[in-house]
User: Fold this.
Amino acid sequence: MSDNVLRYRDDEAHDEPAVTLDAFVAGQTNAGAVRLEAGDDARALLPHIDRLALVEVSFPSFRDGRGYSSARILREAGYAGELRAAGDVLVDQIPHMRRCGFDSFAPESAIDGAMLERSLARYPTPYQRAADAKVPVWKLRHG
Amino acid sequence: MYRYDEYDQAIVDARVDEFRDQCRRRLAGELSEDQFKPLRLMNGLYLQLHAYMLRVAVPYGTLNARQMRMLAHVARTYDRGYGHFTTRQNIQYNWIKLEDAADILAELATVEMHAIQTSGNCIRNISSDQFAGAAADEVTDPRPWAELLRQWSTFHPEFTYLPRKFKIAVIAADEDRAAMRLHDIGLQLVERDGALGARVYVGGGMGRTPMIAPLIRDFVGADELMSYLEACLRVYNRYGRRDNIYKARIKILLHEIGADEYRRQVEEEFLAVKQLGIDPPAAELARISEMFASPPFDPAAPDSVDRTDPDFALWLDQNVKPHKQSGYAIVNISLKPIGGIPGDASAEQIDVMADLAERYSADELRVTHAQNIVLPHVRKADLYPVWQQLGEAGLAEANLDLISDIIACPGLDYCALANARSIPLAQKIGQRFAGAGRQRDLGELKLKISGCINACGHHHAGHIGILGVDKKGTENYQLLLGGSGAEDVSLGRITGPGFDEDGVVDAIERVTDTYLQVREQGERFVDTYRRVGMQPFKEAIYG
Amino acid sequence: MRLVTGNDLPTGDVVWWAGGGWSRHIEEAVDAGDRAEAIAREEEAARRVNVPYVIEATATPDGPRPAHIKDRIRALGPTVRTDLTLKPADPNAGSWVI
Assistant:
């Protein structure tokens, strides 16, 4: 595991190298860690989520938003392991990624910790329900 | 009108803080332009030809007088005394300094306004019918639904880095005043078995590959609408093309996989998504709807209007539309004076319109996709003083939906993407057809000009459309006929080889002359075109 | 001649490379020749200018005239609002663009 992974989990980090989705689905491995490329179908993992400890989702460019949907699909199906955004991950994007269910980050370029903290604290009450625990505004309005 | 509560205000205030920080990092050199660009675009800040341009959201085109005055204040204080109303019912300022951008947003936030998602590959400002709440033909006021969508789409965590921009329109009448089927998603609110819901059209758009959105679902109930839209967007986010910016809009995905396959995928996603509890409760739509309740109309308001003044009568016939309430009328303020710049208004004019709204229109204004302004609730007894005051401000042009009521993008005079100028052409066409008698004789004729293939001027949807192109370094204009953005939606066809600026004005005159010769009783230009086809026009143009 | 142009970072104003720095007036633009691309790169890296690029222009007695209409409009201002251009007092300023 690289040293600059930001984790928002209390459990022990999972050190095993991630295998590709193809290798995993082909059943050639007992791996507990899978790497999804941006275009991979996260749904292919759903039958196996109970035995996965880490899913790493690749962001080849910060403009490529497919990984946000991959994350939500996994979380909505009940995946509880580590979900890592890796690649071109920028400080201004991490709050949205957290909302989609990512709980660890392996950004290519270093991220300013203080700025990230400010950024994560900035919007306490979102408008919509997502894959995090934040309570949407409409719920606060109507209970 | 919607009013912010503490949550709405906190979100907009936080956005100002965030953008201030992003601007600071850029000015300090911590962010490169490449990194900053998507951040500033997400907040409507472009870099155009002469300066930064800021696009401010006017959600579903609705404003009160206080907000309108703030727009004038921004024009005066931070720009050069004017603003440009756009086909997305927003306003943009052409001469903004990056150093001022956060201060402007802070000022806007004090009147519950913002520039959130007015650009970027995200869900843009929700557009709607400018006559909402005033028109007799609507099944319900679409604006509460649009507000619900505004909240759902604001900082949507999953859909902020879509393949491309995403535009949603909501209407609630059969008459389409919002070009609904030329949006990525068009919603028409309908009633079924006593319940309100939406008919969902997906995959319309203009740009270089114009398409009319097919019907994807006949009815989605109010209680499941967000889930359904979430499914629509998720399929697009996952499978929309990202390899080619020109093929990245959802219309291309629909075109490539077909409407049936898209529908199937959405339904599959919807089955999963609707279990997640992401739809706000009915109480939320009810809460918002209360704020859009009709103003207290006077049931005894007189229904007759004194038409003695002939100029006033002209304006009345052209720019004033029927209201659902007897004794009231909908006033359309044309921002298309002959020889003027379509959609531009000075700070003084914006203030005048704010004053009139406050005094005569229940404190409400609307921006239309045709770049005009509406006073939705005017007592008929007040129409004459309203007209007089508009006239004093240069705002009483009686040309709504006539040939000089031209939609035009900013074009090469302002826009970094443009290939040709749009505004000078609009000015010349307006001047050529300036006579009131001549324009009125031509009747409804929607002329729309875009300065490049991106089609911000809706040229595909014009009865007459003009597209500016770059022909070896000189401006050239293609002519299209037969488009419509209304309920009779259609896409225009190119007549043939293009023209220079004067040539295209001449060609339009030959087109309208032909129409006058061949039209039958009661036919609008576009009806005649549909009946006789391109050929007679082509012969007249190219002879 | 080859000019380097861009927009000023804090204000967004159109600027032209004038040798030792940037000018808002195209009359002061200099021929950057073979150094044009390098100047654009260096100045952008130093965050002194926004999205600089290189254009072709012709030297005239009144100063450089860009080959493309877009850059002529940038040099002057919007042709439909001559009051807001760099030459508001010159009624014929717009004809230079066409």
Notes: Chain B touches chain A through 41 residues (CB under 8 Å). The longest helix of chain B spans residues 6-27.
